[in-house]
Every structure is written in structure tokens, then in C-alpha cells.
């Protein structure tokens, strides 16, 4: 057993890594806030709800099991359940029981939800473009995509028992 005096020294961030980390946290926080405010103002919904509608719109028959929707959006099941309840109240989704699993449910994008998504998508895309992509060169956009794929892959282990949001 290691004691405090024999434990390895933490691998502290270098000055450059610290600057990069702080810049990332600031940018990610500001970007999420910017997109959330834009969608609240223009569509009356938070960014999370918009993401749920987008994922459902791309799914076969515009429907996914709740567990699959949680996995694709990287959120906990309880947060998803709350969000889906609000989307249901707006008439943008509905829940359907799963015939093969009595405990399972599907979330289905309604025509009203698809219409809301269609109306809000142009403004949202413009906000994403203005806040992120228009500020970067083609090389920077490519590098950012590659970096984010590497980070996401490293944070999404595939082994059983992994502590991931949609499993909580």
C-alpha cells in the first residue's frame, strides 16, 4: 500500500495545457449558452430539446427506444425522461409502449415536432455557423473534428459496466 510520502507526484498540466484547458472550458460554456439562448428566443426550447428532436428526426420512422435516445444524446435516463415529458406537453413527441419489452418505451417525433424542428433549424444552423465554423479556417475545422472524435472515443469505453450517462 502506498503512503502519502511514497505516492507518485500528480502529473500537473503544463502552462500551455492549462491555458488550452481554460480556453476550452470557457469556449464550451459560452457556446452552449449562446446556442441555448438562441433556441429559447427563437423556438422556445433549450438546446437539449432541440438535440432530441434532431436525433429523432434522423431515426427510422422518427422513433427510438428511450435507452437508445439517451445513449445518442449522452444524457442520463432521468434527464431524458424529464425532457421527453416537456416535449410531450408541447405535442412535439409522444411515447409508445414497446411490444417486445413491457418495460421499454419508444419516443416518437410527431408531425408537430417535425414542423417545429423545420422552423427552428435555419436559425440554429446560422447560430452554430456564426459562433463556431465561420471563425475557423478549413484546416482548423478539420483539426477540431478530428480532435473531438478522439476525445469522445476515449471517453466512451465499450466494456461492460462502464459509467456512462445513459446507463445511469
Question: What does the model show?
Answer:
The protein is mainly α and 168 residues long. 60% of the residues lie in helices and 11% in strands. The chain contains six helices and three strands. A three-stranded antiparallel sheet has the order 1-3-2. A hairpin with a 2-residue loop joins strand 2 and strand 3. Helix 1 (15-43) packs across helix 5 (111-131). The longest helix has 29 residues, at 15-43. The two termini are 32 Å apart.
Strand content: 5-15%
Instruction: Calculate the mean pLDDT score and round it.
Output: 90
Total helices: the number is: 6
Helix content: 55-70%
- Strands of the widest sheet, in order across it, are 1-3-2
Q: By helix and strand content, what is the structural category?
A: mainly alpha
SSE blueprint:
Elements: H1 15-43, H2 47-58, E1 63-65, H3 66-73, H4 77-89, E2 93-98, E3 101-109, H5 111-131, H6 138-155
Antiparallel strand pairs: 1-3, 2-3
Helix pairs in contact: 1-5
Short description:
The protein has 168 residues and is mainly α. It has 6 helices and 3 strands; from the N terminus they run H-H-E-H-H-E-E-H-H.
Q: Could you list some keywords that capture this structure?
A:
3 strands; mainly alpha; single chain; 168 residues; three-stranded antiparallel β-sheet
Amino acid at each position: 500500500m502506498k503512503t502519502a510520502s511514497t505516492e507518485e507526484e500528480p502529473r500537473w498540466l503544463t502552462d500551455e495545457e492549462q491555458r488550452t484547458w481554460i480556453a476550452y472550458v470557457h469556449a464550451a460554456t459560452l457556446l452552449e449558452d449562446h446556442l441555448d439562448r438562441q433556441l429559447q428566443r427563437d423556438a422556445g426550447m433549450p438546446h437539449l430539446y432541440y438535440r432530441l428532436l434532431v436525433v429523432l428526426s434522423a431515426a427510422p420512422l422518427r422513433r427510438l427506444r428511450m435507452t437508445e435516445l439517451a445513449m445518442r444524446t449522452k444524457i442520463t435516463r432521468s434527464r431524458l425522461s424529464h425532457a421527453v415529458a416537456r416535449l410531450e406537453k408541447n405535442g412535439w413527441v409522444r411515447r409508445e409502449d414497446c411490444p417486445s419489452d413491457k418495460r421499454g418505451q419508444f419516443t416518437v417525433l410527431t408531425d408537430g415536432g417535425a414542423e417545429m424542428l423545420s422552423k427552428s433549424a435555419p436559425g440554429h444552423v446560422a447560430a452554430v455557423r456564426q459562433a463556431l465554423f465561420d471563425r475557423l479556417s478549413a484546416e482548423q475545422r478539420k483539426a477540431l473534428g478530428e480532435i473531438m472524435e478522439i476525445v469522445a472515443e476515449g471517453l466512451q469505453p465499450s466494456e461492460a459496466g462502464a459509467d456512462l450517462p445513459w446507463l445511469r
